[in-house]
Design a protein that fits this description.
The protein folds into 2 domains: 90 residues, Orthogonal Bundle (Butyryl-Coa Dehydrogenase, subunit A, domain 1), CATH 1.10.540.10; 133 residues, Butyryl-CoA Dehydrogenase, subunit A, domain 3 (Up-down Bundle), CATH 1.20.140. The relative contact order is 0.13. Helix content is 65%, strand content 2%. It is globular, with a radius of gyration of 17 Å. By secondary structure, it is mainly alpha-helical. Strand 1 and strand 2 form a beta hairpin. The protein has 8 helices and 2 strands. It has a two-stranded antiparallel sheet. The longest helix has 30 residues.
């Protein structure tokens, strides 16, 4: 995978995905134009070909910053079809996400993708939080300069970095043996980061005026998706 493709993905996320994220969440539909552009770029179902898995996860993480549901289309293209499911986050995602064509390898790849999407989403939430704190003042200083608030951001960023390192390390293992564990670690770190992001926004963090509440819901649902995959694994093993 070339750096040019990753630059194209970043440009697509900035130009189309970020502006559409709130609409996807509100309507529970991924616009056809989003999927069409992803097909043109060549990233729908990217995980099904011979692409290097760590590179695939880099694409998922980049898209996760815009929409975690859309990010999963990279590894589960059928996720735009089927019956809509009531869920806290991941709006626009359908039940077709559980393709399961090469189990358990497909299960492990999807688990890692969920972890990568969560990390991308949480990183974006922290960036939005830093921007918010840079614009707010209290007690005669900009909030981002308050040591305890800055430390909270750095701590969550470090948690995400550690979880991401474990995720990429697992992705380089041909057997993906630790995939469920490292994916769960990633989603835990993401949920923690996004809930801190909400708190750092004060009461505004719970409103739809800011992105962090939607991102937190997506990360919760990614964590739930991993539990769902574990249930499928247990059922097949029995």
């Amino acid at each position: 995978m070339t750096d040019l493709l990753l630059q194209t993905v970043d440009a697509f996320a900035a130009r189309q995905l970020y502006p559409a994220a709130a609409l996807i969440d509100a309507t529970d539909e991924v616009p056809a134009s989003i999927v069409d552009t992803m097909r043109e770029i060549g990233i729908v179902g990217l995980g099904d070909d011979d692409a290097d898995l760590p590179d695939v996860l880099r694409v998922v993480e980049a898209l996760g910053a815009g929409s975690a549901a859309v990010a999963l289309l990279v590894v589960a293209p059928a996720a735009t079809t089927g019956t809509a499911r009531a869920r806290t986050g991941l709006r626009g995602l359908r039940s077709g996400v559980q393709t399961g064509c090469d189990f358990p390898a497909e299960h492990r790849r999807l688990a890692l993708a969920a972890g990568a999407a969560a990390i991308g989403a949480a990183r974006h939430a922290l960036k939005e939080t830093a921007r918010y704190l840079e614009q707010r003042r209290a007690f005669g200083q900009v909030l981002i300069d308050v040591p305890v608030l800055a430390a909270a951001l750095r701590g969550r960023e470090a948690d995400l970095d550690d979880a991401a390192s474990a995720l990429w390390g697992c992705a380089r293992d041909p057997l993906l043996g630790r995939a469920p564990d490292v994916a769960r670690r990633a989603t835990r770190a993401a949920v923690g980061a996004t809930f801190d992001a909400i708190q750092l926004h004060g009461g505004y963090g719970y409103t739809t005026e800011y992105q962090v509440e939607r991102i937190a819901r997506d990360c919760i649902s990614l964590r739930a998706l991993l539990a769902e995959l574990d249930d499928v694994a247990a059922a097949r093993a029995s």
